[in-house]
């Protein structure tokens, strides 16, 4: 007898959306059966028309603990993740103190997170000037890859790499078949904003800076053979070089984020620095091209880049405000709202937000509803609607550009390894490591 069977008229599988029953034993999916197939189980749920999705995998989350826990911590971040249908997050190495650039710093982060995680959590390491010798030890301790910046990160304890410093880091990472993930903006093409408004901020970080950085990274990936991933692509100017590199067999992938797919520069209100992020939200026309990049698989992942901060850092001046968007709990509904309007289906969304990120980070057992995988599942009502109230979210600070927006789709239940997540109860998320399942 199975522990659990969940039936739905819309189960989202790697082969598409279909009526099915998902059987679960000991936290693992044991079978995918016809909807009406008899299957003895200790517990059974029939969702009817409510869809069943794989738990989302968000590989771009800034939790900030330890050190800046008042910005966001593991307890609040993983509650928000579970409420938004995310069952796995991979935490970024910066904004915590210390940043995750040595094995000791990784141990400190794990100690801070222990006992707090409502979803499964993995970790990225960081590549900063002078830490090439730390990359292999971090890899051996199970980080999923290494993040670097080509331009200033916004925090002094995580400085950028010059192109001359990127090369030896990539060579070392290639030696153990690791992954470098890159914040790609060319510092030579960035400028200080000339004033406090959004157009002035946008002008200071042009799409040409992204494209130039991506072209540099493509060249280094070709020369070193290292696997490279471009983070948070905001400019459609990057898509051409990425397509050409991928067609040439260079091991480079790229992602974008919900805010680049759902928001547009033209709609940013004056002084509304909840919209500020780097790289910036660009035009509606640019947004259309990003959707094309998803459709043709130039971009393979949609992840949050959840980068929250306290309200007092979001001063109403785009030159001075902290740059980062909080959206961990809202990514699924925001993307589904726009994707459905554009003719995409739930299978597309699951591919971009669950399967793609799991494949990128090589997280085994996650990202799809398939026998042998973890029973990380989401009951999602795609027709329901809600209006975002920032104060009702689980994010530690109620600052998000989605406040007051009407979005389509509501998460009804999230299961982690076959257990429904109750964010008011004791957490049971685990730490994930590269190569382990």
TrEMBL record:
- Molecular function (GO) terms listed? allantoinase activity
Q: Which cofactor does it need?
A: Zn(2+)
Question: What Enzyme Commission number(s) does the record list for this chain?
Answer: 3.5.2.5
Q: Pathway, per Swiss-Prot/TrEMBL?
A: Nitrogen metabolism; (S)-allantoin degradation; allantoate from (S)-allantoin: step 1/1
Residue stretches in coiled coil: none
Q: Which UniProt keywords are listed? A: Hydrolase, Metal-binding, Zinc
Q: For the Amidohydrolase-related domain, which residue ranges apply?
A: 52-419
Q: Which domain of life is it from?
A: Bacteria
Q: What is this protein called?
A: allantoinase
Q: Which organism is it from?
A: Nonomuraea typhae
């Amino acid at each position: 007898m199975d522990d659990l069977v969940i039936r739905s008229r819309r189960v989202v599988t790697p082969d598409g959306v279909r009526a099915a029953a998902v059987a679960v034993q000991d936290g693992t999916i044991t079978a995918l059966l016809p909807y009406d197939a008899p299957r003895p189980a200790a517990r059974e749920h029939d969702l009817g028309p409510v869809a069943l999705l794989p738990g989302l995998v968000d590989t771009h989350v800034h939790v900030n603990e330890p050190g800046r826990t008042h910005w966001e911590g593991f307890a609040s971040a993983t509650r928000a993740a579970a409420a938004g249908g995310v069952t796995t997050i991979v935490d970024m190495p910066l904004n915590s103190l210390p940043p995750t650039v040595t094995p000791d710093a990784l141990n400190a982060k794990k100690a801070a997170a222990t006992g707090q995680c409502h979803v499964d959590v993995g970790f990225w390491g960081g590549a900063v000037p002078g830490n090439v010798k730390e990359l292999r030890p971090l890899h051996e301790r199970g980080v999923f890859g290494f993040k670097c910046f080509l331009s200033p990160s916004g925090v002094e304890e995580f400085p950028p790499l010059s192109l001359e410093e990127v090369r030896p880091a990539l060579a070392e990472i290639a030696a153990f078949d690791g992954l470098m993930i890159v914040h790609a903006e060319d510092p030579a093409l960035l400028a200080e904003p000339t004033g406090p408004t959004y157009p002035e901020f946008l002008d200071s970080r042009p799409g040409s800076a992204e494209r130039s950085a991506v072209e540099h990274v493509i060249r280094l990936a070709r020369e070193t053979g290292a696997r490279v991933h471009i983070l948070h692509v905001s400019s459609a100017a990057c898509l051409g070089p990425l397509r050409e590199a991928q067609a040439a067999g260079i091991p480079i992938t790229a992602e974008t984020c919900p805010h680049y797919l759902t928001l547009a520069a033209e709609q940013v209100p004056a002084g509304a620095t909840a919209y500020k992020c780097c790289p910036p939200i660009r035009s509606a026309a640019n947004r259309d091209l990003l959707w094309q990049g998803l459709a043709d698989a130039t971009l393979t992942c949609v992840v949050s880049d959840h980068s929250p901060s306290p309200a007092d850092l979001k001063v109403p001046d785009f030159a001075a405000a902290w740059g980062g968007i909080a959206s961990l709990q809202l990514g699924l509904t925001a993307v589904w709202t726009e994707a459905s309007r554009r003719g995409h289906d739930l299978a597309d969304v699951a591919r971009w937000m669950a399967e793609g990120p799991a494949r990128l980070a090589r997280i085994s057992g996650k990202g799809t509803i398939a026998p042998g995988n973890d029973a990380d599942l989401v009951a999602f009502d795609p027709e329901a609607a809600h209006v975002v109230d920032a104060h009702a979210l689980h994010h530690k600070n109620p600052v998000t550009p989605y406040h007051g927006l009407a979005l389509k789709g509501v998460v009804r239940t999230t299961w982690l390894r076959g257990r429904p997540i109750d964010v008011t109860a004791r957490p049971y998320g685990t730490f994930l490591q590269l190569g382990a399942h």
